[in-house]
Specification:
With about 150 residues, the protein is of the alpha+beta class. It has 4 helices and 6 strands.
Length: about 150
């Protein structure tokens, strides 16, 4: 994580913002794991009002990589000019636009959630993973063509 030289104004704004954020709803469905997850839109919806009320904004950009994935830089800006920033690298299993688009969306959602401290309403990821690991493979369980199924 990187940050501006001073964080004396952004730190109290982040504390106030996190106190106002509710959990993100889980409207997305992953048919492969038969589970629900928070979409990028739902994570943004959980944060938008609290960000604006505290003079905060988020910028997300893509950074060049070696062609095997994408790096998403997420920067939390304060109206004072102070900032904090972090980068997440997401793999792209294939070298095509669909795989890179999928990696970008996943990366933006995970980075935004981590930067702002947003959790889904019900965190049942561990329970879903345990059910999935106990279940014998079925012939109908097709592999995840994004290569990111274990990250969903």
């Amino acid at each position: 994580m990187q940050r501006s030289e001073s964080v004396t104004k952004i730190a109290p704004a982040i504390i106030a913002m996190q106190g106002q954020i509710e959990g993100a709803t889980k409207g997305g469905e992953n048919p492969h794991f038969r589970s629900k997850y928070s979409t990028l839109d739902e994570v943004w919806a959980a944060a938008k009002a609290a960000l604006q009320a505290n003079g905060l904004a988020v910028l997300q950009s893509y950074l060049p990589t070696d062609g095997q994935g994408v790096e998403i830089e997420t920067t939390l800006l304060h109206s004072s000019g102070e900032w904090v920033s972090g980068t997440l690298r997401m793999p792209a299993v294939k070298n095509d636009p669909q795989a890179f688009g999928s990696a970008c969306t996943y990366g933006r959602r995970y980075s935004l959630s981590a930067m702002l401290g947003i959790c889904s309403e019900v965190d049942d990821d561990a329970e879903a993973a345990m059910k999935s690991s106990r279940k014998p493979p079925q012939a109908s369980d097709a592999p995840d063509d994004t290569g990111l199924g274990d990250l969903i």
